[in-house]
Amino acid sequence: MGESRQELITWLNSLLQLNITKVEQCGTGAALCQVFDSIFLDIPMSRVKFNVNTEYAYIQNFKVLQNSFAKHNVEKPVPVEALVKCKMQDNLEFLQWTKKYWDQYYPGGDYDAVARRKGNPVPSGSGGGPRVTTSSAAARRGGTTPSGGPRLAPKAGGAASAALIQENNTLKETVVGLERERDFYFSKLRDIELLIQQACEEDPEIEKQEDGLIKQIQAILYSTEEGFEIPAEGEGLDDQETF
User: Fold this and answer.
1) Which of 62, 131, 158, 165 has its CA 20 to 30 A from that of 182?
2) How many angstroms separate the CA atoms of 35 and 141, rounded?
3) pLDDT digit string (tens) for 111-149?
4) CB-based contacts of 96: which residues, under 8 Å, 6+ apart?
5) Are 7 and 39 in contact (CB under 8 A)?
6) Do 108 and 27 sit in the same domain of this protein?
């Protein structure tokens, strides 16, 4: 069960130094944008408008949020059409999910919400909440849920760690593909070598022709870059270490 409305409002006001009184106010998208800025620290807050009162302006705020979700591979759909209606239930459910995500990925440290807004005007009465510090954020993440059960410990690294894992998996897939390609072409070279060996066994004279086709093919087969040795007499491609 997620936090109550009052618990969520208290958390928002403390984190963002606002004076929100009901979850419906999250339907403007502004507060939600800044919650995720506290996690990612790269949302263009100058484009987020707090002091607005039209659905069109709310939608523009949510576009900023959706762009951030796409950039950081957050797969949660943002129900913009429902949220901008500023209905309690829709905004409560999305805010509860937002709080769970924040608990998991907030990097800790000080977050100066006012400085991040760079003086962007907010509705009158906002501000005045304490700035979030490492200790206060950790205390909220390390507490208990309203039902009394223990919270899950935040995943180390957060979004940055997830991006590194994804990049590592991509590199592994690339290596597997390169190995398959290497083996494919190496098998072709080995087949050509076997055909030449068979031809030389059937007619030993053709290998003695210095400018003949056999010598030219062998020169290509056994040509190397610096650091790779040409096979010794009697050795074949399959006797050498591969790449």
Assistant:
1) 165
2) 15
3) 999 999 986 666 544 443 334 443 344 434 433 333 333
4) 2, 3, 8
5) no
6) yes
